[in-house]
Amino acid sequence: MAAVHLSNPVTDLYGIGPAAEERLAKLDIYTIYDLIAFIPWRYDDWSDVGTIASFDMTDRFGSDCGYDLSFRGTISTNPSVNVTSRKKPLSFFVSDGTGRIKLTFFNSQYLAGKFALGDECFVHGTVSLFNGQMQMVNPYIEKAEKIEDNALVRPVYHLTAGITSNNISKWVRTALKLCGHELMSCIPASIAEQKGFVSPLEAYEKAHFPSSLEEARRAREQLAYEELILLGIGMKLYSSGHGIKEVAEQVIPSGPNGIDRESAMRWSQIKGNLGFTLTEDQASAFRDVQTDLMSTVPMNRLIQGDVGSGKTMVAALSMIITALMGKQAVLLAPTSVLASQHYKTISKLMANSGMEPVLLLGKTKPSEKQEIKAKIADGSARVIIGTHALLTDDISYKDLALVIADEQHRFGVKQREKLLFKDTAKDGTVKSVHNLIMTATPIPRTLAMVIYGDMATSVIRQKPMGRQEITTWFVNSKKSKAIEEMMAVKLAAGEQVYIVCAKIDKDETESGNDNMVGEPVDGDESVTSVFEMKKIVDSMSNLSQYQSAVLYGSMKEKEKLETMERFIAGDIKILISTTVIEVGVDNPNANVMIIMDADRFGLSTLHQLRGRIGRGDKKSFCLLVSESRSEIALQRMKMMCESSDGFTLAEKDLELRGPGDFYGTRQHGIPTLRAANLYTDMKIANEATEAVNKIIEEGGEEAERLNDAIKKMFELRFARKMEQI
Ligand code: ADP
Ligand code: MG
């Protein structure tokens, strides 16, 4: 067998074929290193062995959920298969001297051949009452002599349909054996010693196969430390151009005679087109941008503002002023729906100004594309709006000065860099462009520092005048009449409704949907899909006269745009969709949002979704429908009902997520972290990166080793993923 390395695809491991490969890809696992880094998100501790008698039934069966018990005992009735009906479950009793429990196994007849009367066993399962008798259905059972100590702390992985924690454990064991020695430590030796850290191989072994919860905790802490160093330092090493002097064009002339009369007149025409006055925060953000555009130091600014706070307007004005000064500005939107919408807004704003924006999408007709590209090349198009289609190599700009990315986390860092670096001059300076990023994800300050480094920030806190608070209610049953009634009332008043579902079809989740929290929804029957919801809505007697339609990410671009347009035009009354509507859709007449299986979404996503309503002057309502009784889910629902402040919610969100933060980080434009929690481990992050920076600055052997290790490990772990985000 050829040598297997960390960078090899998972299929190089024995037992992983195309089907498993596809499933692992859903978990963002492609290489052997990805697999090793996929540490459990929690552990079941079975080592607390009890006795059957001590299991207090009166205490526990008051509630409707079962309780887990681990115990050792002897098989006390014959485990034999029912010969008349092989379909019948296999059952037998196990006693431990204090009492006995009936074990029942479905589809596991083979166990009859494995266990015999009198065998000493270890059993773990959920106890339930059946005909007044204690019973366990499909528990874990193993012969006592085969149980090793460390088999009792059971790793639990975030999973997708068709893969079990046992599969992962088996593969990881092989992976560590084959290439664990290639793992390089990215932690300074002095810190490792001081903290009692072990080798990365050992840390991964302990994280995947701990012999105690304490050991697992320590391993996770070390891996989190390393992960944050990789991210914090590696990201810097990775983005090209770092440390090089960059210059950008001065867009707005400074000084008293800055703007000529003609431009000034056009500018006041455009401001007149606005139809409202900017809020103080908008005006101040726009002033920040104008100041940046007066300098030749490239702007590197983040505009952070809650959904609906009016960021797009600031972006639009920034583009227009750049165009007025004779230079080009590009606005990158993550979806064609959003790009089209921006195009409309900006077109209105530019009416009668003597200038026109252009829109370039993937689906733009080739002939039209050519025309637009020609206009971009000769400089007659100066306000340029589009999607990824703008990032192809065959577009040349006459005089590009400003690039704005809306919800930038949907664009790869590398992708954006394509637009940012134009030329390297003889003296080594790089001619760059001004860069503005707009985000509605309210990123806690500490997190922003890790992701964006030393980016300047403008925050828009106020909402435009006349907005009403959205009222949010938690609905604890899908059958609740409240759902239909709420829709009927608002629809009768001529308003529109969004319904959001956590999956598209029976087995299909939105691709690239990393917003789910907790267990996977693929194949989870209890989760209502877009298509199921469509049927339910169409069968509601009060709603039969209202047109409904579905919308999801994998629909054809053209259909998606059409559906969106018909919804905005008021033709479609009820839009049933996945989280595709999360970003930027603006329909001020839609004032009700119903989120099905709301427990499946993180707080940030819920908040983002809710931001689609409450955009007009009417009262808006959001119903969070969830039948989950999990404590964390209920806490999230409560937060949503109580707070409408994105910032508060974002912090709470990070706090509520467990270690590993499986789904959360990609929303923020950084790759999935496996060990670190960006909220609770933030102190570590700062401490770790500072220490490494200091060592690297001082130079020497250890600096070289770290530099080398971090570069290599970052490349393996994150580099390819950075391109995909
Ligand atoms: P964001 O991009 O921050 O989510 P938008 O820029 O899309 O917000 O603005 C949301 C809505 O508010 C739009 O319909 C926009 O026309 C409107 N709007 C923006 N600024 C103002 C303002 N200062 N006064 C009134 N309405 C505004
Ligand atoms: Mg917007």
Structure explained in plain terms:
This protein has 725 residues and is an alpha/beta fold. Helices cover 37% and strands 17% of the residues. It is built from 23 helices and 24 strands. Helix 5 runs antiparallel to helix 7, helix 19 runs antiparallel to helix 21 and helix 20 packs antiparallel against helix 21. Bound molecules: adenosine-5'-diphosphate (ADP) and magnesium ion.
Task: Quote the distance from N terminus to C terminus.
Answer: 34 Å
Bound molecules: adenosine-5'-diphosphate, magnesium ion
Rg from C-alpha positions? Answer: 29 Å
SSE-based structural type? alpha/beta
- Beta strand count: 24
- Anisotropy-based shape: globular
Q: What's the main sheet like?
A: 7 strands, parallel
Low-confidence stretches: 59-65, 511-520, 659-668
Strand order of the largest sheet: 12-13-11-14-17-10-18
* Tally of separate helices: 23
List keywords for this structure.
binds adenosine-5'-diphosphate; binds magnesium ion; seven-stranded parallel sheet; about 725 residues; globular; six-stranded parallel sheet; alpha/beta
Summarize, please.
Helix 19 (603-610) packs antiparallel against helix 21 (646-656), helix 20 packs antiparallel against helix 21 (646-656) and helix 22 (682-698) crosses helix 23. Helices cover 37% and strands 17% of the residues. It is built from 23 helices and 24 strands.
Task: Annotate the secondary structure layout.
Elements: H1 18-26, H2 32-37, E1 42-45, H3 57-60, E2 67-75, E3 90-95, E4 100-105, H4 111-114, E5 120-130, E6 133-137, E7 140-143, E8 153-156, H5 165-179, H6 189-195, H7 200-208, H8 213-238, E9 246-247, H9 261-274, H10 280-293, E10 300-305, H11 311-324, E11 328-332, H12 336-350, E12 357-360, H13 366-378, E13 383-386, E14 400-406, H14 413-420, E15 421-424, E16 430-432, E17 434-439, H15 445-452, E18 456-460, E19 471-475, H16 481-492, E20 496-500, H17 530-538, E21 548-551, H18 557-568, E22 574-577, E23 590-595, H19 603-610, E24 621-625, H20 631-642, H21 646-656, H22 682-698, H23 701-724
Parallel strand pairs: 4-6, 9-16, 10-17, 10-18, 11-13, 11-14, 12-13, 14-17, 19-24, 20-22, 20-23, 21-22, 23-24
Antiparallel strand pairs: 1-8, 2-3, 2-5, 3-4, 5-6, 5-7, 15-16
The site of magnesium ion (MG) has 3 residues, from helix 11.
